[in-house]
Amino acid sequence: MSRGIYRPGIELHCHSNCSDGSLPPDEVMRHLRRCGVRVAALTDHDSVEGLELARSTAAELGLGFINGCEFSALHQGQVIHVVALDFDPAEPRIQRLLHAAGESRAERARGLCAALTAAGFPVSWEEALAEQPRAEAIGRPHLAQILIRKGLCADFDDAIGKLMEPGRPAHVPETWIELRDLLPRLKEAGATSVMAHPGRYRFSTEGRRGFFRAFKEWGGDAVEILCGQGSGTDVQRFGSLALRMELKISAASDFHHKSKWGRPNHYLFDIPPRWQDKLLWLGKSWDPDNFPAPEFVAAAGPAEA
Q1: Contact assessment for residue 220 and residue 183, using Cβ atoms and an 8 Å cutoff
Q2: Over the stretch 264-299, which tens digit does the pLDDT of each residue have?
Q3: Would you say the C-alpha torsion 84, 89, 93, 97 has a positive or negative sign?
């Protein structure tokens, strides 16, 4: 690995239509390969349904692949997302976590349909199932898409931000597992746990330090210092704090739709030399340096529609 600016070409946080992404798992893998990715994990919300198709497609493309899933948990009243990596999806402890999460997600989705309808934005359970046939995978983005298609909302921010966020007329609280219970169970199941998009969580400076410390103490392994639209300031802040707490660092895109994260080379993150020995994937079988770069990477240009 170069000791200069390092662009790993790895994607450890992305979604397919098995949760709230728009592409099937095989198309996600093809998209990532076209963008120069050498190693990928599919990390759908509380689902491993797409892993087999993603893995077989990755093998055809010469793309390294590891199992993944994004779990939801609660900590101090906030919803925290944890990207679990490199585990056996058939492991009984993983299956129990997935079953409980699926039941919670389906129950909340039913509540959201009822709350939206009561607020004057009708969405039936049948419409929700037509949008996403798996009840345990239905989330707010699916219901937002229905509202947009009906002309009841202008966009996702309008549908989710004005209707389904806390304090809004159709908000339904989440009932996820507590973070302090989730992390040890993932550790026992052999998974690597990564704190997803830390910039989304609302903490004071001291509160954030305590959050990172607890994440480490309860079994967490790494922090996404860059995820999607994170700024250079965020990278410095979260990277420094993660290393202070002896957590590894990771980077990802949180890909959902080509229209948002379609820019070629988006996945070739710049990693400063001083942090290169703290990267999550070093020494793993899925280190991207173990895999060849694709023969063709699309030229940089506007995001795809």
Answers
A1: yes
A2: 445 556 677 788 889 999 889 999 889 887 765 443
A3: positive
